[in-house]
Amino acid sequence: MRIQTNQDLYAAGTLIPKGEYQVALRSDSQQIHLTDHGMDINLAAVRRKMNCKVKFESVLFHSGGGRCWTLIVQHPKLGEWVAMLEGEK
Fold it and tell me: Distance between CA atoms of 72 and 80, rounded to whole angstroms?
């Protein structure tokens, strides 16, 4: 799955430059992995309870209002994982 950002984002002090990223879930290390043009970024993720069952892996990336962004990865067997991002000031 892919996401695209139009601005620089920050997650726990880690800079995520604007661009298009390939998203992968690493549940064993509780991270969401972003890959772009030879750059690898690992974001700390939190597992949360899913309200419904999914049949396919999906990625949701949306603004929570203001500078807050949410990256959600849903996997049929591994559950739902969430990472919070903050836009540039």
Answer: 7
User: pLDDT averaged over consecutive 10-residue blocks of the chain (89 residues)?
Assistant: 91 90 93 92 91 89 90 92 88
Q: What's this model's pTM, rounded to 2 decimal places?
A: 0.88
**HEC profile for the chain?**
CEEEECCCEEECCEEECCEEEEEEEEHHHCEEEEEECCEEEEEECEEECCCCCCCCCEEEEEEEECCEEEEEEEECCCEEEEEEEEECC
Residue 59 CA to residue 82 CA, distance in Å, equals 10
